[in-house]
Structures are given as structure tokens and as C-alpha cells.
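Progress narrative, Year 2. Work on Xylan 1,4-beta-xylosidase from Leeuwenhoekiella aestuarii advanced from sequence curation to structure prediction during this period.
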Amino acid sequence: MKTFSLLLLFVCSFSSVFAQYDNVQPVEIGVDFDAKLGELKPIWAFWGYDEPNYTYMKDGKKLLTEISELSKVPVYVRAHSLLVTGDGEAALKWGSTNAYTEDENGNPIYDWTIIDKIFDTYIERGMKPLAQIGFMPEALSTKPQPYRHHWKPGAEYGDIYTGWAYPPNDYSKWAELVYQWVLHSVARYGKEEVESWYWELWNEPNIGYWRGTTEEYIKLYDYTADAVKRALPTAKMGGPETTGPGWDKAEAFLRTFLDHIISGKNYATGETGAPLDFITYHAKGSPKLVDGHIQMNMGSQLNDLAKGFEVVASYPTLKDLPIIIGESDPEGCAACSEEDYPENAYRNGTMYSSYTAASFARKYDLARAYGVNLKGAVTWGFEFEDQAWYAGFRDMATNGVDKPVLNVFRMFGMMHDTQVAVTGDLEYDYKKVRSKSVRENPDVNSLASVGEDGASVMVFNYHDRDDLEVAASPVTINLKNIPAQKVLVNQYRVDQEFSNSYSLYKEMGSPENPTPEQIKALEQAGQLQLFTSPVWMPVTDGNLELSLDLPRQGVALFQLEFEK
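Result:
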């Protein structure tokens, strides 16, 4: 009897917990194509990664080609370690170009071979550098030894902050290096091309990536910005690429930097202030394991975004500058694999893709609410060459096979140019997600846009928990003021069955070394797929109703082609 009572108590408790998350309710979404909100800027067309030498390797070039092809606009790419000393060997959280060394008399030797190889790879694909000026060459570091690190997943993260992270022993030599780099870029690619790039200084200087003081970073910025502008006065220069301003020390660093930009004494010129053409900082979520299951925290990422927007908006002379979120992700370490960091197991499947759809929709909302100019949000997730299949790195592809998350970016690339309002009795808005994340009912919502000849409606069904085997959510989308008599409707889908190489990989038994035939099948499964065949639908008085059952962590895109 006692055993039965305990079992009954367990079942009741489990049912109560499950019911808390399994509240599947029909959702109605309204989209009014006359309720225009302004340009739907391609803020998603920005990527970045730690390991610059992956750029021109086999799978790196393949992925960059795919990323460039999914976008109607040029994609910007940000990579670390472009000035780091070394032989160009690729490793986790490491890269080098050997751009700067010195002879025995301390005279500079410039070698742009590897940097050119990296930037050529971008330019050949119609992409553009978000050129990160860093890190410190060995010959210029105030503490050059040890210089090269050999970090592996599971090791202390702080082990990476070696000689490359220190201030220069000669600011004039550093400035000349930057000046020569920009001059070389103009000579190789042309003035008009380089004018379209973004140049920025360093990465996360408020933590271990910069082993100097805040004031030393500001000094480095002054010398760097002056060198960039002397080489190309029309170049776009920005910073400071701090960690998320939701952290008090990061906010303080950002404010100190912006104060200096406006009224500080310039270390390089002696004048007041320093040039600043765009502002950069990071925004990260914070997943963790709860009862053995992953629980995401989108609220943390949105809080970083919002705090940074608030800071920028408080400076009247700076608030209209473009903002580029230099890293905007569900968490911090792309190279931290699932094996050593089990909370990162979300990365292979649809939790990452649905999180991406939901978080980008809220980035637009937040920027509009704070009245700031959000230019881009860098996804810090590329690929890791010659690693185990689906090892749980934060990447877009594994061994050349696309993961589900990349198909959400393919959806973004198909969106139209003008954002329109989404209405309805919806569970979440950006305010609630920022304050509470998605802890109760699912976040079923939409991002919609319209153009002259068609429209796009992306619908997502996101939740912070990964362990929920629940029914799909019935969703009705009421479209209003469609400027057409008839529309051709294409529905694309990313879920467990569609546009999902990882599901197929698991069905194969998770082979350690897939056969060529299996790889071909995985590559096909990794592409964006139609859910059904396209269908013509009549429009009545400008109205049309669409419906679908959207699985948890699923994303759907309705592409409408107008016939007037």
C-alpha cells in the first residue's frame, strides 16, 4: 500500500509538472499588410568566428558560399586573431596570420599573405569584412610569453588569454601597422570596396581578451582610429565590442568609452574626442541544465540588447549611429562542445533554430522601442573543421552538412523589405521574454514583411525547455489588406521532419564515419524544404486565412506571391 501511494504521488507530481509546460492552446495571429513598421533591415546578415584560418579550408569555403547565397544583400563577416603571430595553423579558439614581425633591429616586417587569403575568400563570394583589428602581434606585446595557447574543450577558459591579449610596447608601431593594413586593403580591393567595410578594435576588452586597463584600451582606440582615418578618411571605424551591457562592469566600460568619444582628450592627436562611426557590444543568453534537461534563457540575451540600447540612446549625439551587436547568441562559447558542456546540446537540433527565429523577432522590437539604429547582429557560429559529426559546437554546419539553424537564416534571406505589424492575443512580447524568458506556455508568434510583389510570414513555436514531447500548436493566421486578387502560397518548414539533417543522422544510428551515400543524404536533408506543394489561394476583400499545426521548436515560413 505504501509503494502504491508513493507511485501515485510520483505520477501526480509528474503530471502536474508536465501540465505546466504542455498547455497547448490554439493561437490566432493577425498580420495587416497596411500596418507598415518601416524597413526590415537584414540584421541577420552578419556572421563571426574565433578561428580565422577555417575561412579558406574546405568546409569553411563551402559554408561561406552557402551563407552568401542565402542573402540578397552582402553578408558581413567578423573573425578574431587577424593580427596574431603564427604560422596559420587552425585550432579551437586560435588563429594567426603572421601579418607583423620584426627584424633583429626592431624594424617592422609586414606580410599580408594570410590576411589576403581570408579577405579574398569573402570578396570572391560578395561578402564583406567586419574587420576586427586585433590581436597583439608577439613582437609588439608588453608580455609576449607565453604567446600561443593550446586550449581544448573542458580546459579553463582563462587559459586562452596569453601574450596576444596585452597592450603594445609601442603605440606608434601599432598605429603604423594599422595604417599599412588599411593602405594595403585599398590598394588590393579598391577605395570604394574598402569604404563599405567596417573596421573595429579588439574583442571584449572589459574581460580577459584585453590584459590592459580601460584607459589603455581607450588609448589604443585613439591610435587605431587615427591610423585608419589617415589611411582612408571615409573608412568606418567603431568599437568597443564589450561583453553584454546587462553586466554592470560592461555597462560602465561602454559608458566610459562613449564619454571619451565625445569629450575625452585624444591620445593620438591631442584633440577633443575620437572618431566613431558605429557602436558595438555583445548580447548572450545563458542556458543551463535543470533536472537533467536544457533550459534556455533568452531573457538574458534580450536584457543585454536592451541595456546597450538604453546606454546608446542616452547620448544625444551618438544615438543615431549604427549599432552592430558583435556577437548575439544563446550563450558564450562556440568552441565548447556538448561532450564537455552538456547544456550546449541544444545546438544540433531545432531548439537552436526556433530560438534564432524568436530572438531575432524581438531584436527588431527592442530596437524600435528604444529608437536606436540597429544595423546588424552577428551570429557567432561558423564551422569547426575536421571535428566529430554533430559534436555540439555552436556552428551552422558539421563536416560540410548544414544544421537546422542555417535554414532559419535561409528563411530570413527570403523575407521582404518592409516589416508589418503582427497582432493577436499572444502570450509573449519582447518585454515579457526579456523579464521572464519563456518558462510557461510556448512562445507562438510571427515576424512578417511585405514587398511590391509578395509577402513573407515567419511563424515560430519556441519554448525554453528541451524535454517536452507535446502536441503541435494549432495556429491560424489572418492576413489583411493583401494587395492582390489571388496569391501563390509556399510553405517552408524547419522541424523534426523537415530541413533537419540531425534527425536523419540519428535515424542512421549516429554513425561515427558516415558513408558517402549517407553524407549525400544528410546534405540533402540539411537544405530548406517545402512543407507542401505550392498552392494558389483566392483573396476575398483583401483577406486570407492560413492555418497550420506547428510542432514545438518548429519554424514555418509562408511565402506569398501576389497576382493582381
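Residues 1-21 have pLDDT under 50 and may be disordered. DSSP finds 13 helices and 25 strands in the chain.
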